[in-house]
Amino acid sequence: MRGSDSRALLASIHDVGPGFEKEVDRLVGLMTDTLRCSRFAMLVVPNHWGCHPIRSGSPFANRLRAWSESGIEMFVHGWYHKDIVEHHGIKGLKARYMTAREGEFLGLSYSEAARRMEDGRALVEDIIGRKAAGFIAPAWLYGWGAMEALLDSSFDIAEDHMKVWIPQTGKVVARGPVITWASRSTARTASSVAFAALACKVLHPLRTIRVAVHPSDISKDSILSSIDTTLRCFAKSRQAGSYQSLLK
User: Fold this and answer.
1) Which of 15, 137, 163, 188 makes the best surface tag, with the fewest CB within 10 Å?
2) Would you say which domain of life the source belongs to (predicted)?
3) Domain assignment of residue 69, given as a range
């Protein structure tokens, strides 16, 4: 698509599933209008919090396939997204302050992490009719079990807050913080909007910029405005790209 030295903008919509269909529709419209293409990613949750299963042949599954065929990359984004493990120490701090019980893969054993990864991959690939782009853990949080399972998986790409890497080799193919937003509280919203504004000033030297949005973002006009401003800022100097292009 582009030379290996060119700069890219990787945008993604998280928590894609039937429980957030209206929110995802709005975010798809925002992405498409701002980027003027469908080169972005969707992170698909097979059964969000055990309440919103995606079933093959359902209307939502058909929409996923259509989005995939339009050029949108499809990632497996956990299975439930919900974290029910009791954490202690550093993990406890991450589970409490970095996410609201959403870090599903932070405390899973190797076998359980591997099973959920494989079940998610099989479901998504059956629905879209092609290979999933990769795996990204909910809240970008990985415990040792998830990391070991990724090492043995067939996923081409994984991502956390600070990097994108190839699971089987550990090779890092992009570095830099994800620009994302938080709507859980007024303080978190203000800090995320402020970080996005700062990012627009200081992150331009990075070869790859990553922007991630969530269904809850549409609940606040200040976040939607910040998302639009951020995407337009980076789209001026770089192309909307694909995660797969990082492997070339």
Assistant:
1) 188
2) Bacteria
3) 8-247
